[in-house]
Design brief:
Layout (H helix, E strand, L loop, with lengths): L12 E10 L2 E11 L4 E5 L6 H9 L6 E6 L2 E2 L10 E4 L11 H11 L4 H14 L15 H13 L5 E5 L7 H18 L3 E5 L2 H7 L2 E6 L2 E7 H6 L4 H6 L4 E3 L1 H8 L12 E3 L4 E4 L4 E11 L2 E8 L3 E6 L12 E6 L4 E3 L2
Parallel strand pairs: 3-8, 3-9, 6-7, 7-8, 13-16
Antiparallel strand pairs: 1-2, 1-4, 4-5, 9-10, 11-12, 12-18, 13-17, 14-15, 14-17, 15-16
Helix pairs in contact: 2-3, 2-4, 3-4, 5-6
Length: 342
Amino acid sequence: MSPHPGTGPRTGLELVGAGVEYDGAPALRDASLHLPRGEVLAVLGPSGSGKSTLLRAVAGLEDLASGSVAFDGEDLAGVPVHRRSFALMFQDGQLFAHLSVGRNVAYPLRLRRTPRPAVRARVAELLELVGLAGYADRPPATLSGGERQRVALARALACEPRLLLLDEPLSALDRGLRERLAGDLRRILVAAGTTALLVTHDVDEALATADRLALVRGGRVVQEGPAAAVDAAPVDADAARQLGYAHVLAPDVAARALAPAGAGASGRGGLAVRRTGWEVVVPGGLAGTVTEQRRTGAGPRLVVAVPGVGEVEARLPGTGPAPAAGAPVRVAVDPASTAPIG
């Protein structure tokens, strides 16, 4: 029976009630999500949340204890890994050190006995796509970490997989490089028209890369949908924290924090606030005490201890002198830096 009565099977990847157990203990529980063809889904969660288990179940590397995994309406139960027409890319790239860049990219094509002229053309096309034109003869040891990951991506795309699975592909890189490559990864996947499932613990990477977002916690998919919609309305306080919101305010506190902006709190579960969403105001808002003056690239900030909320980092209005540590101030939140919960 179709999981969507009246609609028939949906194209792309479909998980319905998928569960995985290790020695009788559940590692993935009742996971359901949909990834349409041509889109990128980021599965976001902390270590041990079950996100990599989900990816391995999709790949066929883990047997399901319950539920189903399907692609384009075909149930993949019993279909071995090598017959799913999926490609996997891991965080270390796993390039062959003894092969040149071009031969690394060509490797899956040669396994399929693709004619040499077609291999050369495809390798050149992919290296151009990932920004490494002219690198075909270079050994992997001469490349930077980011360049090696680009080669690994080109190799994964070589045989035009119907689904690309990426397991923390940028996590071994430093923060600045991850931020740059996340945007490049999005561009490459869109240009290639690839359907991709990306597993990550980094919310910035997820939002920069994906069309859709699935939040995983405790082995469960707790929220799933278009990335912008999930980010704008986390289902609960823990989901807000997973999405990088620094503070969660109870509804009554949220109402007072928003009052100076003339806005009202609408979330039944309270209000999530970005770390950069606070500002010093006169009058109104929430009372607090300055604990520290801090200089940032965006200008001076005050660290303010707010009873019932904790320490917040607030922007200063105007150009006047900053209140000293111990001074009483009032702070409010910018509605544009908030999201209702629930």
